Every structure is written in C-alpha cells, then in structure tokens.
Amino acid sequence: MTDLFAARSQMAASLGFHIIFACIGIAMPLLMVVAERRWQVTGDALYLDLAKRWSKGTAIMFAVGAVSGTILSFELGLLWPGFMEFAGPIIGMPFSLEGFAFFVEAIFLGVYLYGWDRIPPRAHLWAGVLVAVSGALSGIFVVIANAWMNAPTGFTMVDGRPTGIDPIAALMTPAAFSQTLHMTLAAYAATAFAVAGVHAFMLLRDGRNLFHRRALELALWVAVPASLAQPLSGHHSAQFVAEHQPAKLAAMEALFTTTAGAPLLIGGLPDEATGTVRYGLEIPKGLSFLAFNDVDATVRGLDAIPRDEWPHVTTVHLSFQLMVACGSAMALVALWALLRAVRRQPLNASPWFLRAVLAMTPLGFVATEAGWMVTEVGRQPWIIHGVLRTAEAVTPMPGLVWPLVFFLALYALLAVAVAFLLWRQIVKSPDVAEWRRHYVPAARPAEAPAG
Amino acid sequence: MSWLPEPLLPHLLAGAIVVSLTAYVLLAGADFGGGVWDFFATGERRARQRALIADAIGPIWEANHVWLILVVVLLFTCFPAVFARLSVTLHIPLTLMLVGIVARGSAFVFRTYDSQADDVQARWGRIFSIASIVTPVLLGMCVGAVVAGEVQPVRPGQAFPDAFVRPWLGPFQLAIGLLALVLFSFLAAVYLCCEAPDAHLQEDFRRRALIAGALVFVGAAVALWLSRDNAPLVWQRVFAQRAFALPGQLVTAASAGTALAALWARRYALARAAAVVQVCFILWGWALAQYPYLLPPALDLAAAAAPERTLQLVLAALGAGVVVLAPSLWYLFRVFKGPVAE
Fold first, then answer.
1. For the segment A291-302, what is each residue's pLDDT rounded down to a tens digit?
2. In chain B, what are the helix, strand and coil shares in percent, each to the nearest 5?
3. Which residues in chain B are closer than 8 Å to A425, comparing Cβ atoms?
4. Judged by CB atoms within 8 Å, which residues 92-111 of B form the interface with A?
5. Which residues in chain B have Cβ-Cβ distances shorter than 8 Å to A399?
6. pLDDT per residue over A262-271, tens digit each?
7. Which of A70, A84, A396 sits opposite B69 (nearest CB)?
8. What is the rounded CA–CA span in Å between residue B132 and residue A438?
9. ipTM
C-alpha cells in the first residue's frame, strides 16, 4: 500500500466514522427539543420521558462526535500539511466560524443535559434550541470548507502560489448552497429515519405502547419532509456538478464518451480499460435532461478529460447508484407515511408500514456515506479541484499504513462500545427512577450551593 | 502609535492563540487533572472522590475541550506554515495525544451512561483515568519540542528517527510533559478543594494539591536546568536577560508561594485565584521566552503570518465570537459552578 493511499484511506475512515455522529449531533437536538416542547404544551409526562431518553442517546453520540471531530481537525495537518499550508488562510474563515458554533453547541448541551433541575423550564428549552441551531450551523460551515475544495474561489494562482486571497469570496463558493442544503437535509433524514426505525422496531414487539407511538410520530415529522425534499436538493446538486465538475459527473454516470442526448444509466458495472458498461439499464436522454434541463444537451464524457485526471469510475458510479437507491427508498416510505397521515390511519396499525420504516434505519447513513464517496472520490486526483493534486499535499512521513491500522482499530472499538451502549438504552423500557440518577446527582440536593 | 508591536495583526492573533491556550490549560487542563485524581483515588472515600470529580467535569468538559479546537483552527488559518511543520514533525506524539483525547472523552461518557455495576464502572474509569494521565504528558512533550527548537522542516534524505522521533523524544521534552501533568493535577486538586461538599473531601484534595504544588516546583526546576543544553533560547531569556523576564518570574514565584500558603491555611478561594495566576504566568513566561519566534530558532510571527486580509477577517470573527461566547460561558459556569463553599 502506498503512503498516499494509506493517507487517503485514513482520512476516508475518519470522515466516514465522524459523519455519522455529526449527523446525529445535528438532528437529535431538534427531536429532543420538539419532544420537550410537546411536554410543555400538553403537560403529558410521556413527552418529557421521551426528551430525556433521546437526550441520553444524544449525549453519547455527541461526545464521540466531538472527539472524532478533534481527530479530523488534527488529521488535516497530520495527513495533508501541503493542503493546509495552501488552503488554511483561504478557508480558515468557515473553520473559525464552525469553531464558535461548535463551542456554543457544547456549552448549551452541557446546560441541557445536566441542567434539568437547575434552570427554569423555559431556559432549558432555549438551551436545547441553541444546541439544535448551532449544531446545524457548525455542520454548514464545515461543508462550506469542503464545497470550496470542489469549486475553489477567492484567490488567484501566480507561479504556483495563491495570491490576492479573499476569504469572503472563498466563503461564497458557488458549491456552498447545493452542498450545505444536501448535507443538512441528509443529517435530518438519516437520523430521524434511524430513530423512527428504532421505535418502529419496538412497536412491532409491543404494538400498543404509547411511548413508542408518540416517538415514531415525532421522528417522522422530521424524517418525512427531509426525505421528500432530499431528491430535489440532490437534483440541484447534480446540475451544479454537471456544470462545474464534468469529470465527477461523467464518473457518477459512467459516461465514457461525450454524448448529445445522453441516457441516464441505472445500475451497471463500468470497465475503465475498455470504456464500456455492462448490465446497465439506460433511460434515453435522461441524463441530458436531468443535468441540463434539455433532452438534447451534450454531456461531456470521460473522453473529454485527460486520462490522468479521471477519478476511479467504478467506485464513484456504484457509490452514486447506492446513494440514489437509498434516498429513493426513503422518499417512498416518507410518501407512504404522508398518505397514512392524510387518511388518518394510525401509524402503528400496519405491520408492513412499521417493517418498511424499520428497514430505513440504516439507509440514511448508507446514503450519506455513499454520497461522500461520490463527492470525495469523484474529485480525485485533486484535493482542491483543478488547483492542487492530492499527491502533492500528502505528508512526507513514511509508513502511513501504521497510523491507518491504528485508527481503524480505534474506530472499530469505539463503534462496538457505542453500539452496545445504545442497544442497552433502546431495549430497556422507560424507567424514570433509573434515568433520573443521570440528571440529578444523588449527593447534591438541588437547593444546596452548586459550587 | 509607536509603542505598538509591528506588524500588529500577527501579534494580535498570536495573542489570541496564547489566550485560548491559557483557557484550555486552566479549564480542560483541570479536567485532565480530574482524571489523574480519579486514578489516584484512595482511602475510604475513594468512591466519593470519584463522584465529586465526575460531577465537577461532567457538564463542562466538552465546552472546555473546544479551546483546543480553537487553537488548532487559529493556528492553521493565521500561521499555516507553523501548523504544517508541527503536523509533520510531531506526527507521532500528536497521533498518540489524539488517541488519549478520544479515549478520555468517550470512556468518561460511556461510564456515565453504561451500567452502574462496579466492574463496568471500573473498566471505563480505568481507561478514562489512564488516558487523562498520558494525554497531558504528550501535549507537554509537543510543547517541549517547539521550545527546544526541534520543529524544523524535514530535509530530503533525513533518517526517520532524526526527522520524526528525536525532535520530541528527549529528556527536556519529557520534563515539560511531566511538568504539564503535575500542573494540570495541581489545578484540578485546588479546584476540587473549592467544590468539595464537605471537610473530609476537602482535606483529601488539599493534601493532593499540596503534593502536586510541590511537584510543580520540582518539575519547573528540572525543566529549567535541562533547558540550558536543550533550549538555549529559553535559558538565555530566563537567566541571561534578567531585565526582560524578571517581573514575570517574580509574579510566578509569588503566586506559587501564595497558592501553597493558602492551601496550608485552608483558604481555598485564595488558593484557586493564586493557582490560576501562577499557571497564567508560567504559560505567558513561555510565550515571552520564545517571542517573537513561533518555531524557534528561525520562524517568527511576521514570516509565518497569513495574508493581512485573512488576519483582519479572523480578528473580526473572533470579536463577534467573543460577543456570543462570553455570555454563554458565563451562564454555563454560573449554572454549574456556583458560589465557592469555604
């Protein structure tokens, strides 16, 4: 394994691990705030219990997200010092803003998790709102930094060095809107469907449990609109890619030859050596229409791209297919849920509906991972599109396979521990006395001095 | 205004980095110190000592940790060459430190939410406390490598140990690592004296604070002695250019003495204030000792700085950030760290 490939694998593993926790850290606070608000409005203690149980899961996931995010902020330099030296002054702004957003999120999550009996209910709800808003903002800022790598702006290259640096122009990279929208919706859709899936699972075991019925309803309130909006946002993203990153689009669609009225490829196994696709299903003129709103538009194929600037076609194409398949399934189940709601059919009355929701549990995260494979592998061989090659940015340190193995083992251990802990939280039926211990330290009555 | 340092913006942002680092040491440093005392929890009140530590750091450790992220972000935005060189030369200790940060944070949260059975708690507690000991040592060793002037660009053909191991693995670097460890432990013990709900626990942590405080003196002396051969710039600044450093040294010595005397007299709020001053002046003394170099002996503030436009915008963002952060942090600490029980 080359050092470059080891570094890329380590970065991919770190991002792939962190992104799950980041998504949950963005979307779970919204769910817990909605539940808490429902409690305050209805006075039904069930919603309070729900907010507390969801916040417990959030606490675990947020902590792992925070520490794995720390790994990433260091890894930017540990693996790609050439990139950071080049890009730091240009895209430091979104990272700085993200730092502050994350700071606010961490502060008020502490207030939220440990403050149930220390601050008034209204202040507690607002702490949760701040967590939800700053969580979404911090995700948006980080994705802007990535968007800049796809569509770099805010500098001019003179003799291989960036000059005339304008961080505001970099912040305004044209890729920012489509990417941040797509990622933020993904966070809500994936997380809320995973939560809905967990409660659907519990309802399949215990169909009349009111706790899980209410939980399923609230989760679907977030999952359904996000999943229905996501295909539209994806369409917008693809049109942006078609215009700005033709190599990426050609790899996504395994389009080897520049074609007018290009078909949309569904499935199929591309062969880079021969430039052909086997087993694919083609929808005539579909790609031209989707990419450029014109059935006869010419779509640039990989033959228009120098051979040494091709991304790995099979990886990008299959990841893209996987993402679209998962996203479509989620949108269909969301429609089903909407239909049941419109017809006023109780959600728990249909085991097939519950099974469908259960099947969605992992799909949002699979789609998210696949989508990042498309974005990142599709940009190769560039780390900054058209400006800096990944190979030029990698650290000179040899033996990078060792930290790769090391971090893979660490992530595996963490994943097992988190899965075990969540399973424990999920299967345990709500037990007020048990969870209260976590929010009201036993040794300290609420009225005593806190210090 | 001729008394302002030139160029101004890099100085302001380097100052912001020093302030963030100070906050990290005073807050997150004490959280690591809490983990150290979790490891050394002894006697009949062992469980209550651990519970006090967990209550003290639970609501705030994640917010405290963000100061480090802020340091990293400011460094790569404002002084990108410094960040790149640090990341290359210190790849191994920084990686190990990351493992420590991950293990400490996740084990602490897992312990809070996992089964309350003793063996499960003990297992997570062991990971939490050992990671809390190892991480500050590695952080200190990285600082030691910088101070010693060992963080230099890798030359082509340089042997692996010369480029990636020797810069951070030496007696001076180890001494700074241990100094960081005892300093964090000292801070934690002093804070815990203030937060302990009863006199017995207060006595436990008072004893620990006195021991750690004495070790800080030993550690600082050893580090200074080793700096003569290993970090000539610091040695020179501290001992040869007395006028430059003397006022800071006097404040450091006076606050260190006050902290120990106040602990002895059981005046914990005073001890906490003195310990905070002491730690601030140790950090600022280090910053001043290597001024104007970010990576001694050659890379200075002006040479390493990002373009002016970037620095202006980051400074503006910092200003806006402070407006949001200051009240938020004030609220967090008011809710969880109320008035001191004397």
1. 998 889 999 999
2. 80, 0, 20
3. 113
4. 94-95, 98-99, 101-102, 105-106, 108-110
5. 160
6. 899 988 899 8
7. A70
8. 22
9. 0.90
